[in-house]
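In full, the data:

***
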Amino acid sequence: LSWSEALLLGVFPPIRLEINDSEGHPSSSHQTLKGTSKWATSLESLLEDPEGVKRFREFLKKEFSEENVLFWLACEEFKKTQGKKQMQEKAKEIYMTFLSSKASSQVNVEGQSRLSETILETPHPLMFQKLQDQIFNLMKYDSYSRFLKSDIFLNHKKSEEQEENSPEAQTAAKRASRIYNT
């Protein structure tokens, strides 16, 4: 399974983003929320959660723009790549999959921001950052707000709420509180 195939299949590790408050300290409010409640706080929180990414991809697929989140994820993985040879291979894969005029999953970025193939010879971890930021902003200000109103999100939220309110969940919570309060 190649790196891009794994990405397209959704087989990738969760991405850890640090979210900071206005003073630049790590935010603690995001750590207590789970599932759809966490996803609704920000696109960053959604992209931290593998289930959130899965649901967002499902939504974007219906909107014919799944390539945006796939490109963003590929760039996040690329930043972690070690070694010049590996970096060259992954950079070329990202370029051929998302940025070239013949790309199978071409992302919509500003024309002058496109990279030429020559830059692939001397890759660096942040070489796609400007394009990744464009795609992130496109998702944040366009598709993310629609996702929060979508059936995919709302149905998932509803099923989470039903699970939380089920007698089994309440019994488990009571057992846990008895264990910790003794």
About this structure: The first helix runs from residue 3 to 9. The chain has a mean pLDDT of 81. The CA atoms of residues 22 and 127 lie 28 Å apart.
